[in-house]
Inverse folding.
């Protein structure tokens, strides 16, 4: 695709999104879901996915859509980019642009976790100060835990140290990301559930309120009888 054709597609996408944006969805984004961003049309996720499906995979188009700065265009970019062409430098650039949990989690959940750089970015970003870059570390860890069925236990066991280190961060979006990662790890299999529960129990005894919250939030889910039953059934199925 030529540069001119790509520019036309970006313009087409912005017009398409603008026509479908509503004030009600923009208000809901901020008031109901806590998604605050400077440039948003107010388009539902389902509608955004329709446009992404129309475009198909296109790495260069994704970059151009991202550069518009529009929330919905960046969401489309996450769906149309090609994971195998995403570089570590691109991941850093996009992460620096994260200004709300919605774009952070979507990019991690549908794109970044499928790149070969995912584990390295989990480790690097987990120590960053920026709220949404740090959240991205744990949204990415959760996404890998949920999607990578072939990964062994060892990297997840090592990542529990990152969870414990970040748990005292009192910022809402960080602590919720940390809890999500801990819960996702603990739902992979029985061995990881045991390790995640041990981590959660230690956090519940922390003198730090944020860490205690993370521990209690994760413990409620990971010790739930239904979750334990699911893990037992999964183990029985794999042994059959």
């Amino acid at each position: 695709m030529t540069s001119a054709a790509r520019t036309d597609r970006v313009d087409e996408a912005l017009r398409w999104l603008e026509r479908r944006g509503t004030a009600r969805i923009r208000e809901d984004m901020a008031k109901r879901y806590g998604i605050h961003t400077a440039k948003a049309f107010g388009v539902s996720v389902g509608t955004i996915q329709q446009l992404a499906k129309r475009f198909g995979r296109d790495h260069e188009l994704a970059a151009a859509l991202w550069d518009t700065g529009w929330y919905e265009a960046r969401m489309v970019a996450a769906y149309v980019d090609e994971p195998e062409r995403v570089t570590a430098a691109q991941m850093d650039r996009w992460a620096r642009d994260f200004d709300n949990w919605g774009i952070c989690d979507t990019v991690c959940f549908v794109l970044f976790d499928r790149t070969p750089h995912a584990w390295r970015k989990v480790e690097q970003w987990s120590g960053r100060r920026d709220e949404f870059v740090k959240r991205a570390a744990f949204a990415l860890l959760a996404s890998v835990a949920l999607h990578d069925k072939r990964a062994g236990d060892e990297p997840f066991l090592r990542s529990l140290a990152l969870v414990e280190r970040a748990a005292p961060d009192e910022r809402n979006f960080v602590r919720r990301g940390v809890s999500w990662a801990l819960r996702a790890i603990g739902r992979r299999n029985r061995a990881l559930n045991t390790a995640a529960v041990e981590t959660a129990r230690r956090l519940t005894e922390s003198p730090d309120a944020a860490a205690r919250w993370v521990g209690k939030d994760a413990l409620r889910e990971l010790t739930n009888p239904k979750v334990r039953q699911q893990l037992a059934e999964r183990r029985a199925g794999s042994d059959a």
Q: What stands out?
A: The chain has 14 helices and no strands. The chain has a mean pLDDT of 95.
